[in-house]
Each structure stands twice: as structure tokens, then as C-alpha cells.
Amino acid sequence: MFRRLFSTARSLRKTLVLIESAAGQLNPASLSTVTAATQIGEPITALVVDPSVSAAASKIAGITNVLQTSQPTSYLAEEISPLVQKLITENDYSHFLTSGSTIGKSMLPRLGALLDVQPLSDITKVVDAQTFTRPIYAGNAIATIKSKDSTILASVRASSFPPASEASQDPPAPVTEIEPGQTSTRTEFVSEDLVSSDRPELGGAKRVVAGGRGLKDKETFDKLVDPLATKLKAAIGASRAAVDAGFCDNSLQVGQTGKIVAPELYVAVGISGAIQHLAGMKDSQVIVAINKDAEAPIFNVADVGLVGDLNEIIPELTEKL
């Protein structure tokens, strides 16, 4: 009898998804997280801590209802984790999904500690409601993991799931206002500085031009990478070596400890192809590698490889485009 009741309880799937936003726009990674949630099953509840995007969230395909905080709440893990814990406990959600963004990576371990369950990070496939796949060993192997926790917490690798359709649900899902609640944290959100750019956002871009150590310095990085990315209408990325050398901001880092991307086109300029970098871009549909070292590991995963001097090749390529 106990086993039968336990099995029935586990079959009642209710998923809570954190919808991230910035500057009044939905985060594309959150749309991919909704797609992963639909593969688990309905109902799917969206949690929105920025009330300005609740209307947009209610129109996402697959969302059955939206929970909106009564006032804007920061994405600090210290503030949002207790809120999610309360919602999961009071509403008996079987799953909680968030994108594998900086926000997701920050809050998920804390939430796991509060609920005393083991979070699953960076899932790439939903096998069934309890079974998922995720990369291990810098993406060189894929592990299939089955969770036995009563509540399953997971972050989603956005590049592995197509984004859910926006503004495609009519009528939109109902929106319910909730109180953010009080936390005892001594951490306070002060401010944030958002970098605005006309370029596509790196995590969801269809084309990416990334520069590496081979560009030598920031001046060369800007001189060669920027015009090429502009011609291709591409986002700009970088290897960790380029970021550590100060060629560009660390928000542009692609790799195991940076952003995971899978664009239609990835152009690697002066990147040798360390395993940590390959883990963040090797799922790209077409990889173009340009490097003077013919033995560089990047050529092992490249669809198109060109060996030569970057200072000659990139300006010529940019001019021809």
C-alpha cells in the first residue's frame, strides 16, 4: 500500500520554472528552460520576480499559470532561494527548473541545502520525469542520472533545448500576485551596471566570433574581432586566456567556466582549443578555426580550418564579407 501511494504521489508532476529577465526583456535561456519543463509534463508554473515581464511570461507556450511578486525582487540567491523554498513546500511542486545562468548556478546549491535535496546541474536531455542527462569530464562524456528525491531541482543547459515560443499562447496564462516574503539575510542588493550593446546576446546568438590568446593584446582584439563580428551580425566571445589577459570583459568568456553556446556559426580566431574552451562551444553547427598553429587542438573539432597569420587573414575576410 505504501509503495502504491508513493508511486501515485510521484506521478503528480507540477513544475515551477524561474523566468529571468533583464531591462524588461525575457532571458532567452529561460525560454529554453520552459521547453525542458514541457518534456517533464504539465502543469508548468512560471515564477517572475520582475512584475514588468509577467504579461510576456503569461504568453510563453507551455506555461499554465504565472506567479508574480508584488514588487520587484533582486536575483540575489540569498533573497530568491527562501522564496522558492516556500513556494515548493506550500504547493508541493515535484520539479523546479532554472537556466544554467549565473543566477541559476548561484541559487540552486543554496536551494538544495534549504530543501535537503541534491540538485542536478546543466541537464541536456529529459529522459523521463526522474531521469536526465548531463555532461561530465568537460563534456567528454554524458552521464545519465536518475533522481530519487521527492523534489527535483535542476539547472538547464540552454543550448540543448530550443526556446519556447513567445506571445503564442492565447488566451495567456493567469497571473497571480504573491508576496516576496521577508528574509534574514545580511546581504543587500545595492545596484547593477548593465552593459548595453547592439550585438546579439552571447548565450543565444546564432553567430559568434570569438578571439583568443593569439590576438596578442586588446588593441588587436578590438581591431580584428569587432569588424568581423559586425559584418556577420554576430556576438563576440573569447577564450579564458583572452579574458585573463584583459582583452575583453569576462562576461564574454566561452567555455567550461564561462558561457555554453551552440550557434549556427562559431568563428574561433587565434584560439588554440583547450579542452575547457571546447566544452563551451563544440556543439556549434559549423565551427570555423583560424590559427597560425597547424597543430592547434581547435582544428580537431573545426568544420573549416585555415592556417595563417591573423593580421592578414581577418582583414581580408572582413573586406570580402
From TrEMBL:
Gene3D superfamilies: HUPs (3.40.50.620), TPP-binding domain (3.40.50.1220). Its cofactor is FAD. It is found in: Mitochondrion matrix. Residues 160-186 are annotated as: Disordered. The keyword Transport applies. Binds 1 FAD per dimer. Residues 15-193 form the Electron transfer flavoprotein alpha/beta-subunit N-terminal domain. CDD domains: ETF_alpha. Keywords: Electron transport, FAD, Flavoprotein, Mitochondrion, Transport. Coiled coil: none annotated. It comes from the Eukaryota. Pfam families: ETF, ETF_alpha. PANTHER family: ELECTRON TRANSFER FLAVOPROTEIN ALPHA, ELECTRON TRANSFER FLAVOPROTEIN SUBUNIT ALPHA, MITOCHONDRIAL. The electron transfer flavoprotein serves as a specific electron acceptor for several dehydrogenases, including five acyl-CoA dehydrogenases, glutaryl-CoA and sarcosine dehydrogenase. It transfers the electrons to the main mitochondrial respiratory chain via ETF-ubiquinone oxidoreductase (ETF dehydrogenase). Heterodimer of an alpha and a beta subunit. This is Probable electron transfer flavoprotein subunit alpha. The lineage of its organism: Eukaryota, Fungi, Dikarya, Ascomycota, Saccharomycotina.
